[in-house]
What does this fold into?
Amino acid sequence: MQKKGTTGRKDAARDRLPRAVTAGTGSRSQATRERILDAAERLFAQRGFYGVSVRDITGAAEVDVALASYHFGNKQGLLEAVVMRRAEDLNTERSARLDAVLAAAKGRRPPRIEDVIDAFTHPLLDRSSRGSPGWKSYFALIAEVNNSPEFGGVLMTRFFDPVVEKFIDAIRKALPDCDERDLYWAYHFLSGALTLTFAETGRIDKLSGGACRSSDLASVHERLVPYCAAGFRALCAPRRTASRPAGTRRPRK
It folds into this structure.
């Protein structure tokens, strides 16, 4: 469904473009749109949303600045388009992998929490290690968005929550006795681990003195799933009654 006023803004932006620019074919228009998205993705990841202007982005894409307004309306519309473009691809594969995990477990046993987490994380590992360079920028940008009070609760909710809710339901099946609060906290910690890991900031390189590298995705794959699965199991284990501090008395009946 088109937002109210979008057509008018696009027509106005088109009217401001040189005739040679607007005379392109549909495929050329799509190629231009992708160039703008690629440049925005890279610059947003490097400098943040407020560190980049639309003119910076169109300059990097080598297109007329009016084309950004024509395709995306404003800078926030451009950010949303950048996030949505790869989110659709990730969501599709995550859902397909989870469906396969649930189908394999159906009628016999609950799904293993390791398999559920792997279905959630493996598409990121695969794209970061074997995808186009744009995926590296995308994951760095998602780390920033996910940690932003301004954008995180809005964009992550809009573009990722339908699939996240499907995974949380699968985790309920894998750990049926888990308290709802613990389940959501455990997912929250998983999300934080993912965004920091795939941003590849180099933090672990310096902290470990070079023994570990944030770009070593083979090591990430070996460790991430068992680490997160153990955290879910520990947090979702039955709670033990805390012992009373020394010197306290048992309450009278």
The mean pLDDT is 85. The radius of gyration is 23 Å. Residues 54 and 75 are 6 Å apart (CA to CA). The chain has twelve helices and no strands.
